[in-house]
Amino acid sequence: MTSAPADIPQTLQDLLPKWAHFCLYAGRFVEEELGIDLDGRRVLVGLSGGVDSTALLLVLHYLSKRVDFTVGAAHLDHQLRPESAGDAAFARSLCENLGIDCVVESCDVARLAEERGVGLEEAGREARYRLYAALRESGGYDYVALGHQLDDLSEDVLMRLIRGAGWPGLSGMPGYDPLRALIRPLLLIPKSTLRAFVTHVGTGWREDASNADPTMTRNRVRNEILPLIEKENPAFWQSVARLWRIGRVEQDFWDGLESGACENLDNTRLKSLHKAERLHLYKACLDRLGPGQALADTLFKLDEAWREKRNSAVFQFPGDKTATITASGVVFSPKH
Description:
GO terms for molecular function: ATP binding; tRNA(Ile)-lysidine synthase activity. The protein is an alpha/beta fold.
């Protein structure tokens, strides 16, 4: 399907009560758990045309009729699949039927990956986020909404465990990333619920065959490892949701303690802190430099080097970030 039906429900009142309550739940999650008031705001939806982002667009569209905020959409054609033009056409059609402004752009992601020396997944993510940031500025959007859901969160938790993330980062991606103004309103909702919702509304959605590609680690986690875990514990998804909530509470606690300048941590300050506080402070400083998950093992090695006064030792972190031990403390900087 490359076009969305025109005769779809337009308001919460047009939905079955079950699905109207579902949309309201997502709105409460944004307001109560993420601490964001959408009233009077402008929200840009990253719209791939898949079931997750289609559900997100619909939910925010219906909520915007109840709470006064504006919804826009952005679609990026990655030029990786013959069907990608159909994805773009679907995104345009869906937004047109809902009366939502939609920007469609294209990027040769394969070429970008080659130029940057990274994988296709990372290059695609970089291109999308660059588009979102540009549209946020040019379109005056307050937030960028992404369609990550509970299945994605479960994958992310396992991926972080595989990579060696620490706590509370191990609890998964945040629902709100203030640095990039990203929000994830559907983060604690299972994908199966989103499929049922979009089926009820009747818009259809696009399928991406690359999601079944076993050469990609995330796909192996999704299609091979997670089904085994769910077989052992059918309530695994609820466990992940609880873990996420616990992690957010602890992250809020640490964020409250981590104040002040972060580019240069002096020895006097570091010596006054418990090791746990230093490790969290290192992570906070790295997070402020931009995306990229700091691995727990590297943070421990950084702290060990500081305690042993290994001046000039440099530690590399994901996202092209570095930490350098100096005579006066630890200096954090983006890699140039």
